[in-house]
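Service request form, structural biology core

Requester: graduate student, group of Dr. S.
Request type: structure prediction, single chain
Budget code: on file
Notes: please return the result as structure tokens.

Sequence provided:
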Amino acid sequence: MIEIDIKKALKTADGEQELSVSINVENGEFTSLFGKSGAGKTTLLRILAGLTNPDSGKVVVNEKTWVDTEQKISLPARERRTGFVFQDYALFPNMTVRGNLEFAAETREEKQRINELLELMKIEKLQLRKPDQLSGGQRQRVALARALVRKPEILLLDEPLSALDHETRVLLQDEMLQIHNHFETAVIMVSHDISEVFKMSQRVFCLEKGVVIKQGTPSDVFQDKKVSGRFQLMGEVLEIRPSDIVFEVSILIGNQFIRVVATEDEIEDLHVGDRVVLLSKAFNPIILKVG
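Core staff response, request fulfilled:
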């Protein structure tokens, strides 16, 4: 069990606010943090990794205290069994793929795991290349393998796939789920992609202005239980334009474009870039904004 109860002052584009989070994450659970930029998601990951200190609170992992501000306890990052995968990969450019993994290994057992991880991540044939000789997807596989070298108790993923094209992103989502099932490590992932959260997560915490406003399964958090429908699809609004007395809304769902007719009332609070649920009610499509 991972017990988190912390507070941290944040400076955001909207001014100062406080990150105040009290949540528990089960061992082996794939959890996502979802919310707008500036909500405190990445700061929470950094606190868990020991890269940022909270102003007050505790972090207890499997009954071992990592942080307790009252008792002045704060384990150094190197003593916390976490793996951190960043959006920009953060690989050492002067090292080979194998060299990046070997740098993370501290014990003989961890060094012996490198061959297993190279094979699991399908990068064994790339082990003598340097990062600038790899594609984005290959670099992220290396970053994930490096994060797993030390058998972390918590794997922290900060928008790990956001820089990749759609096809590579979907492929890596599948591979990351396979890796998660193989190692059964607790995962906490920051993501702005609702379809990604739906596909990968067992539980979601929605953060807004530093506090958790919703939590539960992806279905509980994102779907409106008051509306039943024959289908429900997650997408992103690409365009809203008037057409006679109604509006045409173009929505990207996966890599497919769908155009839906909506009334002025339905598009009143809708903007390009919004995440939405497209569902049916009595055979008529309905657009619901998420978040």
